[in-house]
Amino acid sequence: MSDMRNLGFLVSGRGSNMAAVLEEIAAGRLKAEARVVISDKPDAPALALAAGRGLPAFVIERKNFPRRREFEEDMVRVLKEHGVSLVVLAGFMRLLGPAFLAAFPGRVINIHPSLLPAFPGLEAQRKALDHGVKIAGCTVHYVNEVMDGGRIIAQAAVPVEPEDTVESLSARILAQEHRLLARAIAGLEN
Length: 190
Prior knowledge:
By secondary structure, the chain is α/β, with parallel strands linked by helices. It has one domain (6-187): Rossmann fold. The protein has six helices and seven strands; from the N terminus they run βαβαβαβαβαββα. The chain has helices at 16-26, 45-52, 68-81, 98-103, 124-131, 166-187, and strands at residues 6-11, 33-39, 57-59, 86-89, 108-112, 135-142, 152-159. The protein has a seven-stranded mixed sheet with strand order 3-2-1-4-5-6-7, sandwiched between helices. The chain starts with 5 loop residues before the first strand and ends with a helix.
């Protein structure tokens, strides 16, 4: 397998998980290089975060392409032009299809705010509370064509407190996500 330390980030929102990985790189605790950031949302705060770190950042919006395949091919082009070997979904809110996944086989990972396979998809923290689980958490996993269905790389557990709200549980899970993502990247084989 090729070196998995040239990172490209796909983001749709604030980019806090990306920021946590960038901090680990800057501190020398993660031997990796961030190469590029792509957002499907032009107003994503993660773009300003990338610019502030001097990272090339691109907006590639799905609505500008007649088919998903063309949208994905444009993202692949940008990632390859920047020498990316590992694609990190850090709050990217779109499913990736076969065209994208074929371009980076076994080299696309995601962070999800539940202990998969429990609660895939949106609102995982709300689902955990609605089901009355006593332990929630987060998962880093390989991406395949099934939403949140790829092989698990790493997980971190978070106890659910009786007084938890979606917001309080989400905040505690997010703190674990920030630690887990960089550790998972560090543990991937070269």
